[in-house]
From TrEMBL, chains A, B:
InterPro entries: HTH_LacI, LacI/GalR-like_sensor, Lambda_DNA-bd_dom_sf, Peripla_BP_I. It comes from Arthrobacter alpinus. One of its GO terms (molecular function) is DNA-binding transcription factor activity. Keywords: DNA-binding, Transcription, Transcription regulation. It comes from the Bacteria. This is HTH lacI-type domain-containing protein. It holds the Pfam family LacI. Residues 12-66 form the HTH lacI-type domain.
Length: 359, 359
């Protein structure tokens, strides 16, 4: 490839090649498509010139003849401003891109603001329908699963391959559908047992938005595992933002006296942003971390390492989730059997925010 | 649209419509393309059924006939792991997506790891060349401009519209090229004057990677404006990561005694991640912020508000940069005149990390 060569008038066409070589367009086309009807010597000349001038088959023409777009789609159904603040999405996209780029596949990205859709129940479905109808993508990766999620039936109807990222371990692969499953039960047990062995008996859980299946499972497993170990749990629903994580923290802790029976000695947050907001709220309440309250969050993004005190977290290889999902989708697109990959369980990353309960 | 209707065999084709209506494929095609050769009554029946079944023109067929892909491309030329940690990119993508989504345009995203390309000088050019050659995108947005940047000449050669985001104010629009320009001089003056009026006379600058034009301009303007006000500056090059920002901080400050003439009483960082790493390094050096050293960073992402002490920053509306760039690119694609938008200057957001120099 030469970028400093003679300027060319945009894209190189089959006509250009034919004109330069002094042969017919049909001959060029035969040569490029590996068809008979042209001598091997001519074929070699055509291919050499095509390579030199940077000729590529038009993606539109290829898509029409091969029914492949070499593109994978992702729709993030969330307020774009929130997406901009959430390290989870960028990490997972980086993991996905690492695999797609290595296979010369393109990523088609769309963000749909739930507050701006005309009909809440139809959420982001119009994008999938349009992509399928227009033949834009070879498959999609789904995040943020909800109860009675309308996306899988829609995609099934369009015969569109899809991978659910972060599905529960009970979700089975089906026709044109593979899954990266995450066991919230195992991760919840890791967190609860880390708190119990440090002496905590009464904890609080600040969880993400209602309706997200993985978040509901996480909260249920945190509660039931704590109960099975004789611990008590208070729960407060938040929305994954730092601001509301702080508000939820104040709702749970304000007015409670350290040492009293109802005082939670540890707070578990459903994501890192809420935990960082929680740390600030605890400071305003004059509660020291981990002196009065221990804090554990979920994911272990860069926010945890950079916060002060350092945030303990259930550390998950988010970019690996993305890599696995991309790998599964490429397999489906290539016609391989659907299958699930069980994500590696999270590992507790203990930092300053996690202390022994000495009350 | 009905997602619970009778299952359909994938995509609806013109043949399907013709079969259901009992008319020829040619008639359906005439009706859908607004051509004559079909009665108005038949046209109405065809359009009604097409709407009901969710027929869309194939994007490949449309691209061939209209030379439009309804897609915009962005290549991030940086280690994907670093991209995952950098709030700047996700914010700017959110801004871009907000505009593209409202116009039903798709965003094609690619990340290219500089450490993984076969030839460093060719950087990510192969992606642009391929997109242009295959007719994948209608235009691209460029970040992270370098000296003698090879991307604009390549895109000019392919007649591909592009918008430079974050170009210097001296960059003029050209054929098929608009720009969102940022004045590093104005922003640097804002930061230097905020420090001077708080009594600082000797400051340090920890800058991002060599070769990035905006980063070099930023450092030059910080130095020259400080010099014009009788202040002195020490400079240290870093790489935009938190870890190296910490290392650079130690390189600048270690062994210096607060109160001595060579001790910088304030450090300016080229981005938020390096500043957060710097805060941690200063803690290890037993230097208090802002007691011994004030800290100001660049961008004011969510990291600044969440860090402790709160990080003062030159606050820039990063998502607005993205919105402006997307708007300019849509104009170019629609055939409007190229033009520049001058981004609004940054505003100093003072938080705990900025103190008066009382040494």
């Amino acid at each position: 490839m030469s970028i400093s060569g003679a300027p060319q008038a945009g894209k190189v066409t089959i006509s250009d090649l034919a004109h330069r070589l002094g042969i017919s367009k049909a001959s060029v086309s035969y040569a490029l498509n590996g068809q008979s009807g042209v001598s091997e010597a001519t074929r070699a000349r055509v291919l050499a010139l095509a390579g030199e001038l940077g000729w590529y088959p038009s993606s539109s023409a290829r898509a029409l003849s091969h029914s492949r777009t070499d593109s994978v789609g992702i729709v993030l159904f969330r307020d774009p401003e929130q997406i901009g603040a959430e390290p989870f999405y960028m990490s997972i996209l980086a993991g996905i891109e690492g695999v797609l780029g290595a296979h010369d596949m393109n990523l088609l990205l769309r963000m749909v603001d739930p507050g701006a859709v005309p009909d809440e129940r139809m959420r982001d479905l119009a994008v999938y329908e349009r992509w399928a109808g227009e033949g834009r993508v070879d498959g999609v990766i789904l995040f943020d699963h909800v109860r009675d999620d309308p996306r899988p039936p829609l995609l099934d109807r369009f015969r569109m391959p899809y991978v659910r990222l972060g599905a529960g371990p009970d979700v089975l692969p089906s026709v044109r559908n593979s899954n990266v499953t995450v066991s919230q039960a195992v991760d919840a047990a890791t967190v609860v047992e880390a708190l119990r062995e440090r002496g905590h008996r009464h904890i609080a859980v600040v969880s993400g938005p209602a309706g997200l299946v993985h978040e509901e499972q996480k909260t249920e497993h945190l509660s039931s595992h704590a109960a099975s170990l004789g611990m008590t749990v208070v729960k407060c629903r938040s929305d994954y933002t730092a601001d509301d994580g702080g508000t939820a923290t104040i709702a749970v802790m304000a007015g409670l006296v350290p040492g009293s029976p109802e005082f939670p000695t540890a707070i578990v947050y459903g994501n890192d942003l809420m935990a960082v907001g929680g740390l600030q709220a605890l400071k305003r309440l004059n509660l020291s971390v981990p002196g009065h309250v221990s804090v554990i969050s979920w994911d272990d993004s860069i926010l945890c390492r950079l916060s002060s005190p350092g945030l303990s977290a259930l550390s998950r290889s988010v970019s690996e989730f993305g890599k696995n999902a991309a790998q599964l989708l490429l397999e489906l697109i290539a016609g391989h059997e659907p299958r699930n990959i069980q994500a590696r369980p999270g590992v507790l990353q203990a930092r300053e925010s996690l202390g022994r309960n000495l009350l």
